[in-house]
Specification:
Length: 223
């Protein structure tokens, strides 16, 4: 797995390079600003770009705007936002196509193996979302949709799916069997009208439906 890192803190940038190197992850480039990021991705074609949201010169949204540009110009490159902040507007736009996208908060990543696992999921076309990011996206007022027919446990399962958890990890989180999780997921697919398809990725589509529900105004669904 080859990655490019865009992080303005030299200490964190160098630390990530060293830690990822110990896990046999190739860091093709580690840069401090958005322009250097765009150049590095074009040159090295990484599997994943790890991007801080706030980069020089203004330290506002350069990183996430660069991520949107990379999404358009290099769709094969996974995007992992790695930040201290939750930026819901741009994150929702990036989640218009959630495959190969992740958003982790720096303060909550305490295990390098967990971080590498998130990189691997994003590189493989999956998602890796911090629970706090999911909570803030879901916390906005939502319009009434088929999602409102989900039970509380089904919504909890779907939230963990949005974080990129496997069925086994979801089963462990709720202390239930893999079969019980499979049943919940089958119910979610049925209620969201997602039949089996040779071309569609139902898991990603279900997560997208859930995340899209944060965009529009409407009544808060009953628990």
């Amino acid at each position: 797995m080859r990655v490019v890192i865009a992080e303005d803190s030299a200490l964190l940038r160098d630390g990530l390079v060293q830690l990822l190197g110990l896990r046999q992850v190739e860091v093709a480039a580690a840069v401090r600003d958005a322009e250097a990021l765009l150049t590095a991705v074009a040159e090295h074609a990484p599997d994943v770009a790890v991007i801080d949201i706030r980069l020089p010169p203004t330290q506002t949204d350069e990183g996430v705007r660069a991520a949107l540009r990379l999404r358009a110009e290099h769709p094969g490159t996974g995007i992992l936002l790695f930040s201290q902040y939750v930026e819901t507007t741009y994150a929702t736009r990036l989640l218009g196509d959630p495959a190969g996208f992740g958003y982790l908060l720096k303060e909550r990543v305490v295990d390098i193996d967990e971080f590498v696992g998130a990189l691997e999921r994003v590189a493989g076309g999956g998602t890796a979302l911090d629970p706090e990011v999911v909570a803030q996206l879901f916390g906005a007022s939502r319009r009434t949709t088929a999602l409102d027919t989900l039970t509380r446990r089904e919504r909890e399962v779907l939230a963990l799916m949005a974080e990129g958890r496997t069925n086994q990890a979801i089963a462990a989180a709720f202390t239930v069997s893999d079969r019980a999780v499979e049943k919940h997921i089958a119910n979610i697919f049925a209620k969201l009208g997602l039949p089996p398809s040779e071309t569609g990725h139902r898991r990603v589509l279900a997560v997208l439906r859930h995340l899209e529900s944060a965009r529009g105004p409407g009544p808060t669904p009953r628990s």
